[in-house]
Amino acid sequence: MALYIGLMSGTSLDGVDGALAQFNGEAITTLEAAYIAFPPSLRAELMALQASGANEIEREALAANQLAQYYAQCVAELLRESGKQAQDVRAVAVHGQTIRHRPELGFTRQTNNPALLAELCGIDVIADFRSRDIAAGGQGAPLVPAFHQALFSKQGQARVVANIGGISNISVLSRDGRVAGFDTGPGNVLMDGWIARHRRQEYDADGAWAASGKVIPDLLAELLKEPYLALPAPKSTGRDLFHLDWLDARLAVHRPAAPEDVQRTLTQYTAVTLADAIKAYGGGADAVYICGGGAYNSVLMDALGTELGKQVLVASTQALGVAPNRVEALAFAWLGYRFSERLAGNLPAVTGAQGERVLGALYPR
Q1: Which of 308, 242, 240, 241 is nearest to 274 (CA)?
Q2: Which family does it belong to (predicted)?
Q3: How many distinct structural domains can be found in the chain?
Q4: Burial (0-12, 13-18, 19+ Cβ within 10 Å), 311
Q5: 12 is an annotated ligand-binding site residue
Q6: Do residues 118 and 82 both lie within one domain?
Q7: Domain coverage including residue 274
Q8: Distance in Å from the first CA to the final CA of the chain
Q9: Is 351 assigned a ligand-binding role in the annotation?
Q10: Is 14 annotated as a binding residue?
Q11: 276 is in an annotated binding site
């Protein structure tokens, strides 16, 4: 048996989720979970680094140093709560913070300082999971479908696991063992940006603000014209495409609307694009299980259930024994385990890579 820590800070830019997991072969047991919020200053800088700007190389390096400090805090919290010591953990597997994702140009950039994290934690650190898949001709994303298959598949059942973070992605787990997956479009990224602009809140808790508005049909139709949605899989996306400037350009040709109605429409947009992808690639699924922050938005969950129809069970991954906010951190713990065992971490059918690859780079303690 071996212990691994997985750390994930995603597109929502709100903080780092951590999970301490025990691996007994392919069997995974979660021992502890933790969350460390980013301060507003770091969140603002990470947001600014999503686009080119003055002195961005130095600013990115400084942000990476700050990230390492918060990653180390999360590791310390996991050790403290579990009663484990650094020497008990084989490795910390950390995703880093995506600030550019351009697989069509042959690169992706996850800001991180894994060398500093190894110094701070006294534990081996495994990082840079996406670039090897891109080097092999893949999208470098999504990587979680391989983990979803390992954790959530059940023989004889067809399931879809949908992660709704900043960006939404699906894993289609077929009855015959085949796996498909891709980024479907925005998750919370547009909703978060819109409520931050109008109400200075980081996110729409339980969709309460959206619930006060109504869907604007012609705006929804305009948003659904986005060409990315019609692209075939494999495909992946991020803030490089979906951001408030993208939204503003579409609102500019639309009649003025109440902010809460725009928020409700954005919530519906996430539900519709996700449901359309599930129908196209996961039709016939027995159930759809949701993880990520979107699983805690009841307005979004209800809208998704309505779009999919009563014949499809829609539930959070809690129904499978894993809290929705733990899944991605666990996924990177699993990728760290796969790296240590020199086992492939990607699924070429998902990412489009030329073959299976061991993902990650090691920074020894």
Answers
A1: 308
A2: Belongs to the anhydro-N-acetylmuramic acid kinase family.
A3: 2
A4: exposed
A5: yes
A6: yes
A7: 144-320
A8: 20
A9: no
A10: yes
A11: no
